[in-house]
Amino acid sequence: MKMRAVIYHGPRDIRLEERPVPAPGAGEVVVKLGAALTCGTDFKAYRQGHPVLLGKYPSPSAMSSPAPCRRSERA
What we know:
The protein contains one helix and four strands; from the N terminus they run E-E-E-H-E. It has 75 residues and is mainly beta. The protein has one domain (22-75). The strands form two sheets. It has a two-stranded antiparallel ribbon with strand order 1-2. A two-stranded antiparallel ribbon has the order 3-4.
């Protein structure tokens, strides 16, 4: 199965790529992001060439896990 991912390659160089969906390991969960929003500060930093984590306001949903999961207090 494939997924689309926005990959950071360097300052002012992000690309939409197709990647294989990773398989979760023990204690891991694959999370699907329906959307991820950026703020004005992220955009300004990107325009100036600084590496930033774009999309820090996600809307995730769990896709798969090798074992039953429970809600974490840190989530």
